Amino acid sequence: MMTPEDKEEMISHLPALRAFAISLTRSRTRADDAVQDTVLRALSHADQFERGSNMRAWLFTILRNAYYSDRRRHGREVGFVEGLWSAQLAVKPDHDGYLQIRDFLRVFERLPDEQREVLILIGASGFSYEKAADVTGVPIGTVKSRLNRARARLANDLDFYEGPMEITDPVTLAVLCRI
Amino acid sequence: MSRNDRSRDRPAVDDLIDQNVRLLYDGLIAEGLPDRFKELLNVIRAEDHQQGNLRDDDA
User: Fold this and answer.
1) Chain A partners within 8 Å of B19 (Cβ)
2) For residue range B1-58, what is the model confidence (pLDDT) as tens digits?
């Protein structure tokens, strides 16, 4: 059973868990369902959590296992509408930052799930290769290989090698990502 | 640009990609949680409160 402190820690991880879920499902609605389901699973399987271990990694593992289980049952593209996530970036179309981040998101959301998740886990969440391997249930070499393929595809499709792409500043992005 | 030139740029390009992914991810985190979660979290916290009261009664 989770102590009140454990529950508060779990709650503190939910915004990051939701961000991971959105990047995995590419749908806010599906992501919110997945996060809610993960919270309920975590509470009902609290005895499986080892106190002192990484709760964020445990929650991410529950969520992604449920996602892939669902994907196996219902098919790869269930619920995914290409371009929907990037279309949800709400800002004037002539805004430079919008075009940059929208272009990035368009390619990012087309990456295979397994490549997108390692980019989020390692590139954004700061998980080590070892921890990402634990979460995804594959060897470290596979994690590195997926990460390399994801970066290579983004770099090629966005032409990053031909010249530096200016990144959108965090303040602009906060506006861009609101829907 | 030759293939060799491209491979020399790889670490910088990887870093640029990670910066964009972090910006996307941080932007999603900054959204916070929708209202449906606030209701769920209130229920979870109320559960603890009730259990705490029961423990106090037992004592």
Assistant:
1) 167
2) 444 455 547 888 888 899 889 988 998 899 889 998 988 888 888 877 666 665 556 5
The contacts found for B32-38 with CB under 8 angstroms, 24 or more apart, are: B32/A15, B33/A14, B33/A15, B33/A18, B34/A32, B36/A32, B36/A36, B37/A14, B37/A32, B37/A35, B37/A36
CA A66 to chain centre: 14
Distance from CA of B43 to the nearest CA of A (A): 12
Subunit contact A155:B28, Cβ cutoff 8 A: no
Q: B31–A165: do the CB atoms touch at under 8 Å?
A: no
CA dist A97 and A85 (Å) reads 16
Burial class (CB in 10 A: 0-12, 13-18, 19+), A96: exposed
ipTM score of complex: 0.81
Q: Could you tell me how many helices (H) and strands (E) chain B has, helices first?
A: 3, 0
Q: Which residues of B touch A (CB under 8 A)?
A: 1, 5-6, 9, 12-14, 16-34, 36-37, 40-41, 44-45, 48, 52
The pTM is what? 0.82
H or E element that contains A1 = none
